[in-house]
Amino acid sequence: MPNPMILFSIQSPHLPQIFLCRCRICLHNQSRCSTFQDWQRKRVLMSLPLDLLRQLLDPELVWLQMHNRDQRQPQHFQNHDEIIADDVTEEGDRDSNYPFRISHQLDYDAIADYLTSATHDSTEFYTSYHTHTTQHLQKQRRETRHQHPDWYYHQQHQRFTFHSDATETIRSPYFETLPFTTTFDRPVNEILRAGPFWLDVCNPTPEEMSTLARVFRIHPLTTEDIQTEETREKCETFPGYYFITIRSFDADAYSMTYMQPINVYIVVFRECVLSFHSQPIIHLNNVLRRIEQLKVYGMSISPDWLNYALIDDITDGFMPSLRHIELEVDAIDELVLILKDREQSDMLRRIGHARKKVMMLLRLLITKTDVIKAVIKRCAQRLAPDSETTLYLGDIQDHILTMVQTLNHCEKTLTRSHSNYLAQISIELTQASNRTNDVVMKMTALASILVPLNIITGLFGMNVKVPGEEGETLVWFFCIMGFMAFLAFVSYIWLRKNLH
């Protein structure tokens, strides 16, 4: 019988991080391994380098964690006697979500080691990505010519923004090239431990997301939502952090993507905040400017406050567009009843555009109330914000509800204006039809009067003898004319009496 393959994790104070290892163990008669020394005496063949095994100076401090192959979740054991032969994993039984991270705290040393020792894996990849970014930048410049080119160039190429009390704000095109070692004399791990920090990432590549997920121990479900650009706004709690998906929009009226949603993903740890978005957003600079203003008064920031500030700025970004829509709706409501026919040619188009903007903003705001409620609900949990931040979040919720009510009112106003406009158009059409009918009736009456006269003139206009044509007097002529006038007068009196 071949030796089974056992999957377990090793954690030791002598190791910089947690390793997930596979080993073969000889189980004689289903015997158990009571201590780590027994594992060594039974000649455990571990898939670790020999120099790394030598770092395990004190085997009693090594902590083992078995992984159940059925549940795919780690199983914690109080002592090693609970490890039995049933907890085995076949050679081909793998899971893409491995390795499991046991500790729920950030490993500053591992992050520092990565930042100080990481190099570009492929120069061609970064050159190609830089070329792609430059082409995308040129396209965006053509679409947004009114914007300041220096600001947009800076935002596109400096995709990683790092801020903390110890470093202020530093930017870099790549995560590995953040200028910690070249700008500051302090070690990277001390800079990270100095206080809460914020890392903002614009348009991350799959390789960069994989690196960040490994360094910061982000759950694969979170990574999947960020990479696939999940559009549903939500707040989820994971071991060690909570994850928020919220949507902003492009408020630039001259942009080709005006009013298009922008997904913003926020990962809030106890020690830091990570934010991700697919294109540059103005909220980053607004929050950084707000942080600098608070530092003047000696106020410190926390990850929960950073999360609040970012959500608050995203929410406040709706206010200018909302005020513009309010003015437009009020103007439409007033002008729809007082404009003349010639001035109402574009009224229907204005109503349609205004309603489209209202529905877009309403769709973006209506789900934010559930997100804020979920964040406030986390206040009773271990990783939730403190009570002061909860008050601020409640204020955001009030603003969102106020804006939703305003948009609902605008939607009702536009609906009423649309109905009034259609009603007015219908009245004008009815009035024009009535005027046409009056003219037709008058023409009909005139034709009715002239029909008998046409009969008389038609009869005597043929090649027949006309009375009095042989005489030299005009008596017959005036008699015929008098008779025709009398007949016209009688027809007029009859038509007037019957038509009215």
From TrEMBL:
It is found in: Membrane. The chain crosses the membrane at residues 443-462, 474-495. It is a multi-pass membrane protein. The keyword Lipid metabolism does not apply. GO terms for biological process: intracellular magnesium ion homeostasis. One of its GO terms (molecular function) is magnesium ion transmembrane transporter activity. One of its GO terms (cellular component) is membrane. The keyword Membrane applies. Keywords: Membrane, Transmembrane, Transmembrane helix. Belongs to the CorA metal ion transporter (MIT) (TC 1.A.35) family. This is Cora-domain-containing protein. It comes from Rhizoclosmatium globosum.
